[in-house]
Amino acid sequence: MPADLDALRADLERLDGRGYGGYKRLRDGRWAWEHGELAVVRVQADPFAPPSRLQVRVPPEVAGLPDDLLASRPRRRGVADALVRATAAALGTGRDAPFSVDTGGQQVLARSAIHVAPDGAVTLRLAVALPADGRRIRGRHAADLLTRQLPAAVAQGLRWTTADHERVRAGAEVCEDAAALRGQLGDLGLVAFVADGAVLPRRSGVDDRPLTGSGVVPFAAPTSLARTVTLPNAGAVTGMGVPEGVTVVVGGGYHGKSTLLRALERGVYDHVPGDGRERCVTRPDAVAIRAEDGRRVARVDVSRFVGALPTGASTADFSSEDASGSTSQAAATVEALEAGADALLIDEDTAATNLMVRDVRMQRLVAAEAEPLTPFTDLARSLHRDRGVSTVLVAGGSGDAFDVADTVIRLHAFTASEVTGDAHAIAAAVPGREGGARAFPPVPARVPDPASVPVRHKGKPAVTPRGAGALRVGPATVDLAAVNQLVDPSLTAGVGQALRRLVEDGLLDGSATLAEALAALAQALGEEPAEALAARWAGDVAAPRHHEVAAALNRLRTLEVRAPGAQRAERPS
Prior knowledge:
Blueprint lengths: L2 E2 H11 L14 E4 L2 E7 L9 E7 L1 H4 L9 H19 L7 E2 L6 E2 L5 E3 L5 E7 L3 E2 L2 E2 L1 H19 L7 H24 L1 E6 L6 E3 L2 E4 L15 E6 L3 E9 L2 E6 L5 H10 L3 E2 L8 E3 L3 E4 L7 E4 L17 E3 L4 H14 L4 E5 L5 H4 L3 H6 L14 H8 L2 E5 L12 E6 L2 E4 L1 H10 L17 E2 L7 E2 L2 E2 L1 E3 L4 E4 L2 E4 L9 H16 L9 H12 L3 H6 L11 H10 L5 E2 L11
Parallel strand pairs: 1-2, 16-23, 16-24, 19-22, 22-23
Antiparallel strand pairs: 2-3, 3-4, 4-8, 5-8, 6-17, 7-8, 9-10, 11-15, 11-18, 12-13, 14-15, 20-21, 24-25, 26-32, 27-28, 29-30, 30-31
Helix pairs in contact: 1-4, 3-4, 3-5, 12-15
């Protein structure tokens, strides 16, 4: 049975002035009070080490959440997000605050920091920097933190009787509506949906909150692309449906093209109420693609995009320690297809120009037999026809994609219009390219070697996130800065723990293909992936998509792969 908080307070006060190591006696301790139970999961070794980790559980009868808010995973996820933000506000977390709670940004993610169970029990996980004076324990301050401030914040933030009911219900309803809308896209023949009234511009490149002010233009669907959907809470909602196939987004600079694409990239996630993109959703398997100079590529078949090289190297089994922009983008595209992407999101600004287009003048100066690259525009139509993969392409400098576009959307001063007919007429009157669509055959499977994924070193876990854009795996740092849909450091931490599960649980067993291993991972993590990923790591994680897990694996510089059925290479002893 856990002790009560009075015992914890007395224990901490007795530690006042002692050496910092005295805090270790708190490890694995449990203390209860009327609103919940506190457990100390990990104790920091010294004042300068990563903070200690705590867990608080509030039982269903104390949390008192109404049954309708617990009725589905999307609703519980929205409730959890609202509760954890309220609790963090009550704790006063910040740069110099002792408590740290992972609330995230504008996206609502399944996080280990907060979990609302189907029965209404609430689990909060957070960090605390246990106070010290030099290397001496400040026991009275610690007692105040753990036995007064934390219980007060829990009582305020994690109970229905004191919660902001309107905000919690809004969180539940927004997530339920977004999930329902995302689930309808396939049946509607859409890649994405952007609701009328959505606010897509952000405050800055480092501030993901919605832009405000008189100059903000709410989104409005072109009449020809307007669709009306019925959602569980919002009812009938009208907006722009982005159709399957090849969609090209055009317009002048600073008129909203890339802003729309960024919203579609992040439409794979739910958003907090008031974000402006709550009903801007994209298919769950849509993947952003870009060029990435210098990345590693491990035995990827890029022959659809890159033909015979002057060196004679095979592009059907292409590897590089320092890929160019074009080969890195070709590899990223094939890797995304291997992982099950059904839509590609590409911005001309971050793509390799020579892989995207090759105009008539260049074709006539450089003969086809001298150019190994096949432009993406020659493959986009067959990607959809042969592989069922749609493309949304932002194009501002070349009209070559007009020939293959099924839909063309123009952005002018953040106002959208459909100009497909005009684009096709221009393509017919002003030839911009020679050559036609190419077939897109199936992507060959690859089998990763688990021994090449060093998630442990000397028997200990060796995977550490470095913010949102990097992950340390064994001796190597995986650069994930170009993986646009890794929008939260906790997602990157979740990717790291997913890699651990793949190797430690034998899902990468030397015979499973990458796609098979990812499917097995999804099954192993079950319906509460953030909880499962957090089981082996005391830090904060959010549940990533398997596409970002695959992206990290593919960028790991130690990764070795082979074809299914091929003999595994012997490693030197």
